[in-house]
Amino acid sequence: MNSFFEITKYDPKIDSEELLKEQVNNAYEANKLFFGQDVEIKINIIYKREEMNQVQGRKTDDWIVGTARNDQITIFSPEVFDKVSNHSRSDFNFVLTHEITHIFTDKMYGFKFPVWFKEGLAGYVAEQYKQSTINTENVQDFQMLHGYKDWQEHPNYRQAYSFINYIVKNAGKDKLFEFCSKLEEKESYEDFCQKFKENFGDDLDKYKQKWMQKLI
Ligand SMILES: [Zn+2]
Asked: Which of 17, 46, 97, 105 has CA 20 to 30 A from 76's CA?
């Protein structure tokens, strides 16, 4: 077991430390394998919706089960996962891996936008939406998924996942990492499109069209 992660808070009356550590270790290793390096992470296990609201500073929706900020993840215990949210208990490992990816990309690259790009990467590493498909009629304009507010209004995780999956398959992981390192913290939509074309050869719209042809 490595020492790059630490479970900072959990309730020993509800959770087994050994089991939690094993789950965190698996989720961490999936990220380490993908990114090829270590990052320090703290994990805070919570049990009540109010705790999530407090951490995020707002009333959170039923589907929100984890969050990542700085080097800290806050996530519901697997023991309460299906009680405090509309997720099934088996989603815990996927969500944990997903939140850990956010810390990896924050620390390695630091970009916050586009939100769809960040979420798609986390979904890809967690292999979260592998079984599900997206229909072309549910595909949205990437500009509508760019900022936090956009994403809150249209959290299109399936599109984000599927498009990142397509980029990795076509351009490869190294090219994707190279692109990540070019992004600014508050990347604008226009700059993102410009850099996308420079890095991947096609502009975003053309790339999107090619990806959509594969969806059918
Ligand atoms: Zn996320």
From this structure: 105
CB 123 within 8 A of CB 165: no
Residue ending a domain, among 108, 127, 148, is 108
Q: 9 pairs with which residues across the strands?
A: 44
What angle is formed at CA 118 by the lines to CA 140 and CA 207, rounded to 5 degrees?
50
Q: Which residue has the tokens 């042809």?
A: 213
Taking the centre of ligand 1 as the mean of its atom positions, its distance from the CA of residue 202, in whole angstroms, is 27
**What's the domain count of the chain?**
2
pLDDT reported for residue 185: 96
- Write down the residue that tokens 């059918």 correspond to: 216
Please give the span between the terminal C-alpha atoms of the chain, in angstroms, as a whole number.
43
pLDDT in tens, 148-183: 999 999 999 999 999 999 999 999 999 999 999 999
Instruction: Map residue 41 onto helix, strand or coil.
Output: strand
Mean pLDDT check: name the lowest of 14-23, 125-134, 187-196. Answer: 125-134
Q: Which domain holds residue 157?
A: 110-216
**98 and 164 housed in the same domain:** no
**Given this model, what pLDDT does residue 183 score?**
97
Q: Is 6 helix (H, G, I), strand (E, B) or coil?
A: strand
CA of 42 to the centre of ligand 1 (A): 16
Question: Quick one: which H or E segment has residue 66?
Answer: strand 66-69
How many angstroms is it from 67 CA to the middle of ligand 1? Answer: 7
Instruction: Round to whole Å and give the CA distance between 210 and 170.
Output: 11
